[in-house]
Amino acid sequence: MSTAANTTAPAAGEKRPPVILCIGMAGSGKTTFMQRLNAHLHAKKQPPYILNLDPAVAALPFSANIDIRDTVNYKEVMKQYNLGPNGGILTALNLFTTKFDQVLGFVEKRAPSLDYILVDTPGQIEIFTWSASGSIITDTLAATYPTMIAYIIDTPRTAAPATFMSNMLYACSILYKTKVPFILVFNKTDVKPHDFAVEWMTDFEAFQEALQKDKTYMSSLMNSMSLVLDEFYAHLKVVGVSAVTGAGMDDFLKAVDEAVVEYDQEYKPELERVLEERRLKKEAEKEEQMARLMKDMAMDEKGKEVSFGGKGHTSTKGKKPLRGMTVDEDDEEEEDDDDEDDDREPRYRDDDDSENDDYEGYRVEEEERRNRMEDESLKRFLAGKRVD
Ligand SMILES: Nc1nc2c(ncn2[C@@H]2O[C@H](COP(=O)(O)OP(=O)(O)O)[C@@H](O)[C@H]2O)c(=O)[nH]1
Ligand SMILES: [Mg+2]
């Protein structure tokens, strides 16, 4: 997508095709819509890359490049984990998500030659929208590609104000959960045109009027809820399509272009801000740990001052970098430290000579013992070699 490449252009020649996640209630027409879009893009010589995330679909009317059914057998999952159909679908999606980095690798390889990536989701909407796996998949894709949700709506079944409102509230919850650009796709317009929906969304009074006719107990609740939705509608792109006749496909692609711009201008900067915040937080934590470590080491050093020197001496051998970290160092000693070779001598000579002689004796003895041991093990080693 040219718009995406122009706005952020991370590297010359790097292409990031938009990812379209098709989400919607069971039977809203996600799969049929994907099939139509696939055919439409093929006709335009822009064949999409297709991911099928619905493990329970019996037959796909298009060929998917990556199919969850190749990774997990959902019926087998149901049997093995003793689950019902929904649990089976969710577990299959979870298992698939554990391999998603590999999937992403395949997509990445193909991305430079692609214009669109289409993702079909499980029939039961909440399995994708309210599961950890769904979030992981959405967020992972959205971290790299301009990702958007195409929320497919069964238009004829949404014509009642109460149903319309429920559907919009559901869409609203998904938008606020995922935060990626959102396209409302009113499907099945061959059965019922979606203009009533557009009217309700743009003209608040028209919707109120429709609600008045609806004399159910819900209508007063609906009245107040519809006020909240006004804000939500402002963030949406709305298109009417028919997955069966193919009407509205170009309108949909135009909305995709706009969603890519929205991704670049709103989602991506926010993502970068969050990542930067996380990085700074990690850095601060690291610094704090480092400071704590330094403090501990400084205390160690002090501990040695007491036990090793015994009479106000400081053991500095091999610990020069640490000394700078302790605040109250003895200045005289600091001067003595300039020459490493002289380091040991003054430390033990200055003071009680007998004590230093003892130490010197111990040191020589230790050295001799080590040499003897080394000789012994060398002899054993050579003997072993000869036997071999
Ligand atoms: N009339 C009409 N029927 C449609 C349209 N899109 C899908 N359908 C029908 O709706 C039913 C559910 O479609 P499907 O794609 O399986 O829905 P999914 O569960 O969301 O994947 C099928 O019988 C489709 O033939 C459309 O645009 N117009
Ligand atoms: Mg389907």
UniProtKB/TrEMBL annotation:
It holds the Pfam family ATP_bind_1. Coiled coil: none annotated. Transmembrane segments: none annotated. GO terms for molecular function: ATP hydrolysis activity; GTP binding; GTPase activity. It is found in: Cytoplasm; Nucleus. CDD domains: GPN1. Residues 301-388 are annotated as: Disordered. Belongs to the GPN-loop GTPase family. GO terms for cellular component: cytoplasm; nucleus. Small GTPase required for proper nuclear import of RNA polymerase II (RNAPII). May act at an RNAP assembly step prior to nuclear import. GO terms for biological process: mitotic sister chromatid cohesion; protein import into nucleus. Its main location: cytoplasm. Binds to RNA polymerase II. This is GPN-loop GTPase. Its EC number is 3.6.5.-. Keywords: Cytoplasm, GTP-binding, Hydrolase, Nucleotide-binding, Phosphoprotein.
